Give the backbone structure.
Amino acid sequence: MYYPFSRSGTLLKLAAYFTLCAIFGAYVGHIGWAIALGAMCLLVLSYRQLFRLNHWLWHSKKMTPPVSEGLWSYIYEGIYVMQRRDRRKRKELSKMVKRFREGSEALPDATVVLDEDGAIVWCNKLARFSLGLRFPQDFGRRIDNLIRHPKFLDYFHAREFDKPIEVQSPLNQDKILEYRFIPYGDKQLLLIARDVTKFVQLEQMRRDFVANVSHELRTPLTVISGYLEMAPDDGQLPASVQQKAFKEMSSQAKRMQTLIEELLVLSRIEANVDQQFDNVVDVPSMLQTIATEANTLNREKQHEITFSVDPQLKVYGLETELRSAFSNLIFNAVHYTPAPGKIEVRWQLEGEDAVFRVRDNGEGIAAKHLSRLTERFYRVDKARSRRTGGSGLGLAIVKHVLSHHNSQLMIDSEVNVGSEFWFILSSELVATVSPQTLKQG
Ligand code: ADP
Protein backbone atom coordinates (compact mmCIF):
# COMPACT_ATOMS: atom_id res chain seq x y z
CA MET A 1 0.00 0.00 0.00
CA TYR A 2 1.37 3.38 -0.91
CA TYR A 3 1.01 6.26 1.63
CA PRO A 4 1.84 9.72 0.38
CA PHE A 5 4.96 11.27 1.88
CA SER A 6 4.33 14.05 4.44
CA ARG A 7 7.08 16.68 4.57
CA SER A 8 5.87 18.40 7.76
CA GLY A 9 5.54 15.07 9.60
CA THR A 10 9.12 14.16 8.66
CA LEU A 11 10.46 17.55 9.71
CA LEU A 12 8.59 17.27 13.01
CA LYS A 13 10.11 13.85 13.64
CA LEU A 14 13.59 15.25 12.84
CA ALA A 15 13.06 18.17 15.20
CA ALA A 16 11.87 15.80 17.97
CA TYR A 17 14.96 13.66 17.41
CA PHE A 18 17.38 16.59 17.76
CA THR A 19 15.43 17.93 20.80
CA LEU A 20 15.89 14.58 22.49
CA CYS A 21 19.63 14.72 21.62
CA ALA A 22 19.82 18.24 23.11
CA ILE A 23 18.00 17.13 26.32
CA PHE A 24 20.36 14.22 26.61
CA GLY A 25 23.34 16.62 25.98
CA ALA A 26 22.07 18.99 28.70
CA TYR A 27 21.77 16.03 31.06
CA VAL A 28 25.40 14.94 30.45
CA GLY A 29 26.62 18.54 30.14
CA HIS A 30 27.62 18.41 26.40
CA ILE A 31 24.74 19.68 24.30
CA GLY A 32 26.87 20.36 21.23
CA TRP A 33 28.49 16.92 21.29
CA ALA A 34 25.18 15.18 21.84
CA ILE A 35 23.64 16.93 18.79
CA ALA A 36 26.75 16.13 16.70
CA LEU A 37 26.56 12.49 17.77
CA GLY A 38 22.85 12.40 16.87
CA ALA A 39 23.63 13.89 13.42
CA MET A 40 26.43 11.32 12.97
CA CYS A 41 24.05 8.45 13.75
CA LEU A 42 21.55 9.83 11.22
CA LEU A 43 24.32 10.07 8.58
CA VAL A 44 25.44 6.48 9.22
CA LEU A 45 21.84 5.24 8.95
CA SER A 46 21.32 7.23 5.75
CA TYR A 47 24.51 5.81 4.21
CA ARG A 48 23.40 2.31 5.17
CA GLN A 49 20.13 2.87 3.38
CA LEU A 50 21.98 4.34 0.39
CA PHE A 51 24.12 1.18 0.16
CA ARG A 52 21.00 -0.98 0.39
CA LEU A 53 19.35 1.09 -2.33
CA ASN A 54 22.43 0.79 -4.55
CA HIS A 55 22.55 -2.96 -3.98
CA TRP A 56 18.85 -3.36 -4.78
CA LEU A 57 19.07 -1.23 -7.94
CA TRP A 58 22.24 -2.70 -9.41
CA HIS A 59 22.87 -6.12 -7.95
CA SER A 60 19.62 -7.64 -6.73
CA LYS A 61 17.34 -9.49 -9.11
CA LYS A 62 14.33 -8.91 -6.87
CA MET A 63 11.64 -6.56 -8.10
CA THR A 64 10.30 -5.86 -4.58
CA PRO A 65 12.35 -3.32 -2.57
CA PRO A 66 14.03 -4.22 0.77
CA VAL A 67 11.92 -3.63 3.88
CA SER A 68 12.60 -0.24 5.43
CA GLU A 69 10.91 2.42 7.45
CA GLY A 70 10.41 6.16 7.50
CA LEU A 71 11.54 8.41 4.69
CA TRP A 72 13.42 5.61 2.98
CA SER A 73 10.34 3.47 2.69
CA TYR A 74 8.74 6.27 0.63
CA ILE A 75 11.79 6.44 -1.63
CA TYR A 76 11.86 2.64 -2.15
CA GLU A 77 8.13 2.58 -2.75
CA GLY A 78 8.38 5.47 -5.26
CA ILE A 79 11.13 3.75 -7.24
CA TYR A 80 9.20 0.47 -7.13
CA VAL A 81 6.03 2.13 -8.48
CA MET A 82 8.01 3.87 -11.25
CA GLN A 83 9.71 0.62 -12.20
CA ARG A 84 6.37 -1.18 -12.36
CA ARG A 85 4.86 1.56 -14.50
CA ASP A 86 7.90 1.50 -16.75
CA ARG A 87 7.72 -2.27 -17.05
CA ARG A 88 4.04 -2.17 -17.98
CA LYS A 89 4.75 0.45 -20.63
CA ARG A 90 7.62 -1.56 -22.04
CA LYS A 91 5.40 -4.61 -22.22
CA GLU A 92 2.70 -2.64 -24.04
CA LEU A 93 5.30 -1.19 -26.39
CA SER A 94 6.82 -4.57 -27.18
CA LYS A 95 3.31 -5.96 -27.77
CA MET A 96 2.66 -3.10 -30.20
CA VAL A 97 5.97 -3.69 -31.99
CA LYS A 98 5.14 -7.40 -32.18
CA ARG A 99 1.70 -6.65 -33.62
CA PHE A 100 3.22 -4.21 -36.14
CA ARG A 101 5.78 -6.82 -37.21
CA GLU A 102 3.14 -9.52 -37.50
CA GLY A 103 1.04 -7.13 -39.61
CA SER A 104 3.99 -6.32 -41.85
CA GLU A 105 4.85 -10.01 -42.17
CA ALA A 106 1.31 -10.63 -43.37
CA LEU A 107 1.65 -7.97 -46.11
CA PRO A 108 1.92 -9.40 -49.62
CA ASP A 109 4.78 -6.97 -50.34
CA ALA A 110 8.41 -6.74 -49.26
CA THR A 111 8.58 -4.08 -46.52
CA VAL A 112 11.70 -2.40 -45.14
CA VAL A 113 11.74 0.22 -42.35
CA LEU A 114 14.58 2.73 -42.81
CA ASP A 115 15.85 5.63 -40.74
CA GLU A 116 16.38 9.09 -42.22
CA ASP A 117 19.77 8.09 -43.72
CA GLY A 118 18.30 5.04 -45.38
CA ALA A 119 19.82 2.60 -42.87
CA ILE A 120 17.78 -0.56 -42.29
CA VAL A 121 15.86 -0.68 -39.02
CA TRP A 122 13.74 -3.71 -39.79
CA CYS A 123 12.49 -5.77 -42.76
CA ASN A 124 9.88 -8.48 -43.24
CA LYS A 125 10.37 -12.03 -44.48
CA LEU A 126 9.35 -11.18 -48.05
CA ALA A 127 12.04 -8.46 -48.19
CA ARG A 128 14.61 -11.06 -47.20
CA PHE A 129 13.24 -13.40 -49.85
CA SER A 130 12.75 -11.05 -52.79
CA LEU A 131 15.39 -8.35 -52.15
CA GLY A 132 18.03 -10.68 -50.73
CA LEU A 133 18.31 -8.72 -47.45
CA ARG A 134 19.54 -10.49 -44.32
CA PHE A 135 18.10 -9.58 -40.99
CA PRO A 136 19.38 -8.87 -38.35
CA GLN A 137 22.81 -9.01 -40.08
CA ASP A 138 21.91 -6.05 -42.33
CA PHE A 139 20.59 -3.95 -39.46
CA GLY A 140 22.06 -0.43 -39.76
CA ARG A 141 23.35 -0.93 -43.31
CA ARG A 142 22.25 1.61 -45.89
CA ILE A 143 19.74 0.35 -48.44
CA ASP A 144 21.64 2.02 -51.33
CA ASN A 145 24.65 -0.15 -50.48
CA LEU A 146 22.53 -3.28 -50.78
CA ILE A 147 20.30 -2.55 -53.80
CA ARG A 148 22.68 -1.28 -56.44
CA HIS A 149 20.52 -0.93 -59.57
CA PRO A 150 21.33 2.54 -61.07
CA LYS A 151 17.64 3.39 -61.53
CA PHE A 152 16.96 2.56 -57.88
CA LEU A 153 19.96 4.64 -56.72
CA ASP A 154 18.85 7.67 -58.77
CA TYR A 155 15.34 7.36 -57.35
CA PHE A 156 16.57 7.03 -53.78
CA HIS A 157 19.06 9.90 -53.96
CA ALA A 158 16.65 12.27 -55.73
CA ARG A 159 14.30 11.84 -52.75
CA GLU A 160 11.26 12.50 -54.91
CA PHE A 161 8.95 9.75 -53.86
CA ASP A 162 5.66 10.87 -55.43
CA LYS A 163 5.70 8.08 -57.99
CA PRO A 164 6.95 4.51 -57.70
CA ILE A 165 9.56 3.07 -60.06
CA GLU A 166 9.83 -0.31 -61.77
CA VAL A 167 13.21 -2.03 -61.65
CA GLN A 168 14.52 -5.55 -62.24
CA SER A 169 14.71 -7.66 -59.11
CA PRO A 170 18.25 -7.83 -57.64
CA LEU A 171 17.89 -11.62 -57.40
CA ASN A 172 16.10 -12.52 -60.63
CA GLN A 173 16.53 -10.63 -63.91
CA ASP A 174 13.18 -11.90 -65.19
CA LYS A 175 11.26 -10.34 -62.32
CA ILE A 176 10.15 -6.71 -62.24
CA LEU A 177 9.68 -5.04 -58.85
CA GLU A 178 7.84 -1.82 -58.18
CA TYR A 179 9.64 0.20 -55.45
CA ARG A 180 7.80 2.83 -53.46
CA PHE A 181 9.26 4.92 -50.62
CA ILE A 182 6.78 6.25 -48.07
CA PRO A 183 8.13 8.93 -45.68
CA TYR A 184 6.53 8.75 -42.23
CA GLY A 185 7.06 9.76 -38.60
CA ASP A 186 10.27 11.60 -37.81
CA LYS A 187 11.96 11.47 -41.25
CA GLN A 188 11.65 7.66 -41.27
CA LEU A 189 11.11 5.85 -44.56
CA LEU A 190 9.10 2.79 -45.44
CA LEU A 191 10.23 0.93 -48.54
CA ILE A 192 7.60 -1.25 -50.21
CA ALA A 193 8.64 -3.54 -53.07
CA ARG A 194 5.94 -5.35 -55.06
CA ASP A 195 6.31 -8.00 -57.75
CA VAL A 196 4.65 -6.50 -60.86
CA THR A 197 6.12 -8.90 -63.44
CA LYS A 198 2.67 -10.14 -64.46
CA PHE A 199 1.24 -6.63 -64.90
CA VAL A 200 4.25 -5.54 -66.98
CA GLN A 201 3.96 -8.64 -69.15
CA LEU A 202 0.20 -8.13 -69.56
CA GLU A 203 0.75 -4.51 -70.52
CA GLN A 204 3.40 -5.58 -73.04
CA MET A 205 1.04 -8.24 -74.41
CA ARG A 206 -1.72 -5.66 -74.76
CA ARG A 207 0.60 -3.29 -76.62
CA ASP A 208 1.88 -6.08 -78.88
CA PHE A 209 -1.66 -7.20 -79.54
CA VAL A 210 -2.85 -3.76 -80.61
CA ALA A 211 0.28 -3.30 -82.75
CA ASN A 212 -0.20 -6.74 -84.35
CA VAL A 213 -3.89 -6.26 -85.10
CA SER A 214 -3.21 -2.83 -86.61
CA HIS A 215 -0.42 -4.27 -88.71
CA GLU A 216 -2.52 -7.22 -89.87
CA LEU A 217 -5.37 -4.93 -90.90
CA ARG A 218 -3.16 -2.31 -92.48
CA THR A 219 -1.58 -4.65 -95.03
CA PRO A 220 -4.81 -5.69 -96.83
CA LEU A 221 -6.17 -2.16 -96.53
CA THR A 222 -3.04 -0.79 -98.23
CA VAL A 223 -3.52 -3.24 -101.10
CA ILE A 224 -7.21 -2.36 -101.51
CA SER A 225 -6.67 1.40 -101.30
CA GLY A 226 -3.71 1.07 -103.72
CA TYR A 227 -6.00 -0.46 -106.37
CA LEU A 228 -8.72 2.09 -105.67
CA GLU A 229 -6.24 4.96 -106.14
CA MET A 230 -5.09 3.41 -109.43
CA ALA A 231 -8.64 3.57 -110.80
CA PRO A 232 -9.25 6.55 -113.10
CA ASP A 233 -11.97 9.07 -112.26
CA ASP A 234 -14.58 7.35 -114.42
CA GLY A 235 -13.84 4.10 -112.55
CA GLN A 236 -13.06 2.26 -115.82
CA LEU A 237 -9.88 0.17 -115.67
CA PRO A 238 -8.53 -1.84 -118.59
CA ALA A 239 -10.25 -5.26 -118.52
CA SER A 240 -7.05 -7.22 -117.71
CA VAL A 241 -6.13 -4.92 -114.79
CA GLN A 242 -9.71 -4.78 -113.57
CA GLN A 243 -9.94 -8.55 -113.28
CA LYS A 244 -6.68 -8.77 -111.31
CA ALA A 245 -7.63 -5.81 -109.11
CA PHE A 246 -11.01 -7.25 -108.16
CA LYS A 247 -9.53 -10.66 -107.50
CA GLU A 248 -6.83 -9.20 -105.26
CA MET A 249 -9.20 -6.81 -103.48
CA SER A 250 -11.69 -9.55 -102.77
CA SER A 251 -8.95 -11.85 -101.43
CA GLN A 252 -7.65 -9.06 -99.15
CA ALA A 253 -11.17 -8.23 -97.97
CA LYS A 254 -11.67 -11.93 -97.18
CA ARG A 255 -8.45 -11.90 -95.22
CA MET A 256 -9.65 -8.99 -93.11
CA GLN A 257 -12.96 -10.72 -92.60
CA THR A 258 -11.25 -13.94 -91.43
CA LEU A 259 -9.03 -11.97 -89.09
CA ILE A 260 -11.94 -10.12 -87.53
CA GLU A 261 -14.00 -13.30 -87.22
CA GLU A 262 -11.11 -15.11 -85.52
CA LEU A 263 -10.52 -12.16 -83.20
CA LEU A 264 -14.17 -12.34 -82.20
CA VAL A 265 -13.93 -16.11 -81.65
CA LEU A 266 -10.83 -15.64 -79.53
CA SER A 267 -12.35 -12.89 -77.40
CA ARG A 268 -15.54 -14.92 -76.95
CA ILE A 269 -13.53 -17.95 -75.84
CA GLU A 270 -11.38 -15.86 -73.51
CA ALA A 271 -14.43 -14.25 -71.95
CA ASN A 272 -16.14 -17.59 -71.48
CA VAL A 273 -15.45 -18.92 -68.01
CA ASP A 274 -18.24 -21.48 -68.19
CA GLN A 275 -16.77 -24.79 -67.12
CA GLN A 276 -20.08 -26.59 -66.74
CA PHE A 277 -19.93 -29.26 -69.37
CA ASP A 278 -23.47 -30.62 -69.20
CA ASN A 279 -23.80 -31.04 -72.95
CA VAL A 280 -22.57 -34.11 -74.74
CA VAL A 281 -20.68 -33.19 -77.89
CA ASP A 282 -21.07 -35.64 -80.75
CA VAL A 283 -17.46 -35.43 -81.90
CA PRO A 284 -17.72 -38.19 -84.57
CA SER A 285 -20.49 -36.36 -86.44
CA MET A 286 -18.68 -33.04 -85.93
CA LEU A 287 -15.55 -34.59 -87.49
CA GLN A 288 -17.64 -35.77 -90.44
CA THR A 289 -18.69 -32.18 -91.19
CA ILE A 290 -15.10 -30.95 -90.77
CA ALA A 291 -13.91 -33.75 -93.10
CA THR A 292 -16.24 -32.48 -95.84
CA GLU A 293 -14.90 -28.94 -95.39
CA ALA A 294 -11.31 -30.23 -95.37
CA ASN A 295 -11.94 -32.09 -98.62
CA THR A 296 -13.19 -28.87 -100.22
CA LEU A 297 -10.00 -27.11 -99.07
CA ASN A 298 -7.99 -30.05 -100.32
CA ARG A 299 -9.25 -29.83 -103.90
CA GLU A 300 -6.15 -28.05 -105.14
CA LYS A 301 -3.66 -29.91 -102.99
CA GLN A 302 -4.77 -33.48 -103.49
CA HIS A 303 -3.47 -34.68 -100.10
CA GLU A 304 -4.38 -38.15 -98.96
CA ILE A 305 -6.49 -37.50 -95.86
CA THR A 306 -7.56 -40.43 -93.66
CA PHE A 307 -9.93 -40.25 -90.72
CA SER A 308 -9.81 -42.93 -88.06
CA VAL A 309 -12.69 -42.04 -85.76
CA ASP A 310 -14.32 -44.02 -82.95
CA PRO A 311 -18.00 -43.56 -83.96
CA GLN A 312 -19.23 -43.80 -80.34
CA LEU A 313 -16.66 -41.59 -78.68
CA LYS A 314 -18.57 -38.54 -77.46
CA VAL A 315 -17.40 -36.12 -74.78
CA TYR A 316 -18.78 -33.54 -72.38
CA GLY A 317 -17.69 -30.09 -73.52
CA LEU A 318 -18.47 -26.84 -75.26
CA GLU A 319 -19.47 -27.68 -78.82
CA THR A 320 -18.56 -24.44 -80.64
CA GLU A 321 -15.19 -24.27 -78.88
CA LEU A 322 -14.29 -27.88 -79.65
CA ARG A 323 -15.35 -27.43 -83.29
CA SER A 324 -12.90 -24.50 -83.54
CA ALA A 325 -10.08 -26.57 -82.06
CA PHE A 326 -10.62 -29.67 -84.23
CA SER A 327 -11.07 -27.69 -87.46
CA ASN A 328 -8.09 -25.38 -86.87
CA LEU A 329 -5.74 -28.32 -86.41
CA ILE A 330 -7.07 -30.23 -89.43
CA PHE A 331 -7.14 -27.17 -91.75
CA ASN A 332 -3.61 -26.20 -90.68
CA ALA A 333 -2.37 -29.66 -91.70
CA VAL A 334 -4.02 -29.21 -95.11
CA HIS A 335 -2.57 -25.69 -95.52
CA TYR A 336 0.97 -26.28 -94.34
CA THR A 337 1.66 -29.68 -95.90
CA PRO A 338 3.18 -29.39 -99.38
CA ALA A 339 1.12 -31.27 -102.00
CA PRO A 340 0.66 -34.13 -102.33
CA GLY A 341 1.00 -35.03 -98.66
CA LYS A 342 -0.44 -37.53 -96.24
CA ILE A 343 -2.65 -36.44 -93.35
CA GLU A 344 -4.00 -38.77 -90.69
CA VAL A 345 -6.72 -37.70 -88.27
CA ARG A 346 -7.39 -39.92 -85.25
CA TRP A 347 -10.07 -39.66 -82.60
CA GLN A 348 -9.77 -42.70 -80.37
CA LEU A 349 -9.72 -43.85 -76.79
CA GLU A 350 -6.22 -44.36 -75.43
CA GLY A 351 -6.53 -46.03 -72.07
CA GLU A 352 -9.56 -44.32 -70.58
CA ASP A 353 -8.92 -40.91 -72.17
CA ALA A 354 -10.13 -39.55 -75.49
CA VAL A 355 -7.21 -38.54 -77.69
CA PHE A 356 -7.25 -36.43 -80.86
CA ARG A 357 -4.27 -36.51 -83.22
CA VAL A 358 -3.55 -34.87 -86.56
CA ARG A 359 -0.39 -36.09 -88.18
CA ASP A 360 1.06 -34.83 -91.45
CA ASN A 361 4.19 -35.51 -93.45
CA GLY A 362 4.82 -31.81 -94.19
CA GLU A 363 7.96 -29.76 -93.73
CA GLY A 364 7.82 -29.91 -89.96
CA ILE A 365 8.63 -27.09 -87.54
CA ALA A 366 12.05 -26.36 -86.03
CA ALA A 367 12.22 -26.92 -82.25
CA LYS A 368 12.92 -23.23 -81.51
CA HIS A 369 9.44 -22.25 -82.76
CA LEU A 370 7.43 -24.90 -80.92
CA SER A 371 7.02 -23.15 -77.57
CA ARG A 372 5.82 -19.95 -79.29
CA LEU A 373 3.39 -21.43 -81.83
CA THR A 374 0.32 -20.81 -79.66
CA GLU A 375 1.13 -17.10 -79.19
CA ARG A 376 -1.21 -14.79 -81.04
CA PHE A 377 0.08 -13.87 -84.51
CA TYR A 378 3.16 -16.04 -84.19
CA ARG A 379 4.04 -17.65 -87.50
CA VAL A 380 6.99 -19.74 -88.57
CA ASP A 381 6.88 -18.36 -92.08
CA LYS A 382 4.91 -15.11 -92.25
CA ALA A 383 4.64 -14.92 -96.03
CA ARG A 384 3.46 -18.51 -96.32
CA SER A 385 0.92 -18.18 -93.57
CA ARG A 386 -0.54 -15.11 -95.30
CA ARG A 387 -0.72 -16.95 -98.59
CA THR A 388 -2.79 -19.65 -96.91
CA GLY A 389 -5.11 -16.92 -95.59
CA GLY A 390 -4.03 -17.64 -92.00
CA SER A 391 -4.74 -15.02 -89.37
CA GLY A 392 -2.06 -16.27 -86.97
CA LEU A 393 -4.72 -16.81 -84.32
CA GLY A 394 -5.67 -20.45 -84.99
CA LEU A 395 -3.40 -22.15 -82.48
CA ALA A 396 -4.04 -19.40 -79.86
CA ILE A 397 -7.73 -20.31 -80.15
CA VAL A 398 -6.91 -24.03 -79.81
CA LYS A 399 -4.82 -23.34 -76.71
CA HIS A 400 -7.66 -21.45 -75.00
CA VAL A 401 -10.29 -24.04 -75.92
CA LEU A 402 -8.14 -26.84 -74.53
CA SER A 403 -7.39 -24.99 -71.33
CA HIS A 404 -11.17 -24.65 -70.84
CA HIS A 405 -11.34 -28.44 -71.13
CA ASN A 406 -8.44 -28.92 -68.68
CA SER A 407 -6.18 -30.03 -71.48
CA GLN A 408 -3.28 -28.67 -73.48
CA LEU A 409 -1.97 -28.82 -77.00
CA MET A 410 0.98 -31.10 -77.63
CA ILE A 411 3.16 -30.69 -80.71
CA ASP A 412 5.71 -33.20 -81.96
CA SER A 413 7.50 -32.09 -85.05
CA GLU A 414 10.62 -32.82 -87.03
CA VAL A 415 11.89 -30.70 -89.87
CA ASN A 416 11.45 -32.46 -93.26
CA VAL A 417 9.56 -35.34 -91.63
CA GLY A 418 6.27 -33.85 -90.48
CA SER A 419 4.26 -32.77 -87.47
CA GLU A 420 1.77 -34.22 -85.06
CA PHE A 421 -0.61 -31.93 -83.17
CA TRP A 422 -2.50 -33.76 -80.43
CA PHE A 423 -4.38 -33.43 -77.17
CA ILE A 424 -6.03 -35.55 -74.52
CA LEU A 425 -9.51 -35.09 -73.10
CA SER A 426 -9.42 -36.86 -69.75
CA SER A 427 -11.69 -39.81 -68.88
CA GLU A 428 -13.97 -37.54 -66.76
CA LEU A 429 -15.03 -35.81 -69.98
CA VAL A 430 -15.66 -39.02 -71.90
CA ALA A 431 -19.44 -39.41 -72.30
CA THR A 432 -20.00 -42.60 -74.30
CA VAL A 433 -17.74 -45.32 -75.55
CA SER A 434 -18.45 -47.94 -78.19
CA PRO A 435 -19.06 -51.43 -76.74
CA GLN A 436 -16.43 -52.74 -79.18
CA THR A 437 -13.76 -50.44 -77.71
CA LEU A 438 -14.76 -51.46 -74.21
CA LYS A 439 -14.25 -55.11 -75.14
CA GLN A 440 -10.82 -54.36 -76.59
CA GLY A 441 -9.89 -52.32 -73.50
P1 ADP B 1 -2.18 -19.31 -89.03
O1 ADP B 1 -3.48 -18.64 -89.06
O2 ADP B 1 -1.06 -18.47 -89.53
O3 ADP B 1 -2.20 -20.68 -89.60
P2 ADP B 1 -1.92 -20.68 -86.52
O4 ADP B 1 -1.94 -20.13 -85.14
O5 ADP B 1 -2.99 -21.63 -86.89
O6 ADP B 1 -1.85 -19.43 -87.48
O7 ADP B 1 -0.53 -21.39 -86.74
C1 ADP B 1 0.65 -20.71 -86.34
C2 ADP B 1 1.81 -21.14 -87.20
O8 ADP B 1 2.13 -22.49 -86.91
C3 ADP B 1 1.53 -21.12 -88.68
O9 ADP B 1 1.76 -19.84 -89.22
C4 ADP B 1 2.50 -22.13 -89.22
O10 ADP B 1 3.77 -21.50 -89.41
C5 ADP B 1 2.65 -23.13 -88.08
N1 ADP B 1 1.87 -24.38 -88.29
C6 ADP B 1 0.64 -24.66 -87.84
N2 ADP B 1 0.25 -25.89 -88.18
C7 ADP B 1 1.27 -26.43 -88.89
C8 ADP B 1 1.50 -27.70 -89.53
N3 ADP B 1 0.59 -28.67 -89.53
N4 ADP B 1 2.69 -27.89 -90.15
C9 ADP B 1 3.62 -26.91 -90.17
N5 ADP B 1 3.47 -25.70 -89.57
C10 ADP B 1 2.30 -25.45 -88.96
About this structure: The two ends are 91 Å apart (CA to CA). The pocket of adenosine-5'-diphosphate is lined by residues 328, 332-333, 336, 360, 362, 365, 373, 379-381, 385, 390-396, 419 (CB under 6 Å). DSSP finds 14 helices and 13 strands in the chain.
